[in-house]
Each structure stands twice: as structure tokens, then as C-alpha cells.
Amino acid sequence: MTALPEFLLDRHPLHPPGPSKHVVSVTFLDKGIHRLSRIVQSGYAHWDLAQRDSVLHRLDARVKVLFVALFLVIVSLKRTIAPEAGIAAFVLALFLASRLDVLTIYKRVLAVGLVFGVLVPFPAMFNFLSDGEPLFPVVHLARPYELWGYHLPQSIVVTREGLHGIAMLFLRVTNSVALTIWLMDTTPFTDIAKALRMFRVPDTFVMVITLSYKYLFVFTRTVEEIHLAKKSRLLGKVRGREARSWAAERMTFLYRKTQMRYEEIFKVMVARGFTGDVKLYGLRRAAASDWWAAGAALGAGVLFLRW
Fold first, then answer.
1. 213 to each of 32, 43, 73, 140, 225, how far by Cα in Å?
2. Within 10 A of 130 (CB to CB), how many other CB atoms are there?
């Protein structure tokens, strides 16, 4: 019998590693990849939420698409804060009636509203961009200035018209985003595509958004797998120049792969008899509850229009 080497017979006490004093840093690329994976999870969450059972979930998709389109037009037409606030309360009631996770959803809605409804137009509330009735001063300069083509007055104040415009834009953005998320969370995407086709939306547009929606999940998953495959082969840090070069090469690779995949899918569709016409299957007749809901949506739209 062959004897084992001595180093295999020696027993060394195992000492658990102590706490590290170094902080593990997460790179910007890792954060971006993590965000992409969250997009995939969010997409599957939309699909799961759309399968829930409630009165609003069971409504015909055509009624809900028509309702959202009508209220998006109303949101863009209103010029005062009160009707916009009323629409916001109405949409919140829809979320509650649909038994959705209101807190999680409205965190995203308010984040989008703050970015595009407050931060982007934030300078418009001051008198150096828009004239109006001054509310309260912000900065008092020694003298007026001319900066990059803009006239900075000696006293910079917040105007009533500028504040009103930002409040209106914030409410419009939040209402529009909330209505869109409500539609996605209560209606499967396939039913939305069928409803668009029933409203005479061109076949090409329906086909493009359907394929793009489905490929979005494949694309984000491919990006995550490429990044993890690269990261698993690294033993140390990568220089910034090498990382940028690798990222540019992967972008080119993904673009070519996406183009090839779409061409292959189109060839398969043509080989199976696709001629450009989108045929819809599985459409059900509108029930009495759907007609009542359509009438209620139309009545609510008229009330908000006359407000």
C-alpha cells in the first residue's frame, strides 16, 4: 500500500478570517448590469401582476387601452392644477381597486416625475428665464450680469407663473406614467397588442413593438451573461482604457448579434407563410361589464374635461 505524503497527514488548525478593513467597491459597470437585471425582473413582474384576478384585471383590454388613451389626451389638455390633481387621485384609486403594490409603484412614478417634471425644468421657475409675478427672492446680486446669452437680473426671484408651470409639468408626467404602468400591470402585453390592432394601428407597428418587447428580455439577459463571463476570468483590476475598449467591442458584438437574430426570425416567419398581415386569435366578445366600464370611463373623461 502506498504511503500518503506527510503534508497530507499534517493537521493545521483552521483560523477563520477576521473582518476586513477594506471596503468592497462596486464599479459603475456592475451597477449598470445590476440595473439591467432589475429590468428583466420588472418585466416578469409586470407579466405576473397582469395575471391577477380583480374586476379591473378582467376588463377587456380594448376598454382599458381606450381609457388610457383618452385620459392621456385629457392630461395633456388641462391647464390648471386642480383637474390634474383630481386625475392623480382618480388614478391612485384605480391602483387601489386593482390590488397592486401602490407604494412600490408610486416610488418609481414619483422618481420619474421629480426628474422630468421638477429637476429638468427647475430653472424655469426663476425670473431670468420666465417673467411673472415675483413670489419670494432667492439671490440678490451686486449688479445685473450677462451670462451665455442670458440676462441675470440683480434680484433673482421665484415667479408664480414659473412655479405653476413646474407643478403642472410634474402632475402631467406623474399622471401619464401612472396610467401607463397601470395598463401594463393589469393587462398582458399580448392583449394590449391585440387591442392596438383592433383600433386600426398598422400591422408593422404592432409587429415591431411586439418583437422589441420580447427581445428586450433576451437582450438584457445576454448583456448580463457577457459581463459575468468576462468578470469570472479576471484575477485583478482592469485598466480604464482596457475596460472601455472591451465595452465598445461588446456593443458592436451585441448590435451584430441583434441584427442577425432579427433577420433569422424574419426568415423563419416568411418560411412559415408570413405575408405581413397580423392575424389575431383568442379575442373574446365584449361582455356587459365591459360596456358598462367603457361608459363609466367615457363619463369620467367628460367630467374631467369640463372641470
1. 20, 9, 24, 52, 19
2. 14
3-state SS, residue 154: coil
- Measure the CA–CA gap between 173 and 119, rounded to whole angstroms: 12
Which pLDDT tens digit goes with each residue over 103-145? 888 888 898 899 888 888 888 888 777 777 878 777 777 777 7
What global pTM score does this model have?
0.70
Helices (H), the chain: 6-9, 28-50, 61-77, 81-97, 102-114, 160-186, 189-198, 203-232, 240-271, 288-306
Total Cβ atoms within 10 A of residue 33: 19
DSSP string, 48-99: HHHT--STTTSS-HHHHHHHHHHHHHHHHH--SHHHHHHHHHHHHHHHHHTT
Q: Are 137 and 156 in contact (CB under 8 A)?
A: yes
Phi, psi of 64 (to 5 degrees): -70, -40
SS3 4: coil
Phi, psi of 250 (to 5 degrees): -70, -35
SS3 5: coil
Mean pLDDT of the chain: 77
- Using DSSP's 3-state secondary structure scheme, residue 136 falls into strand
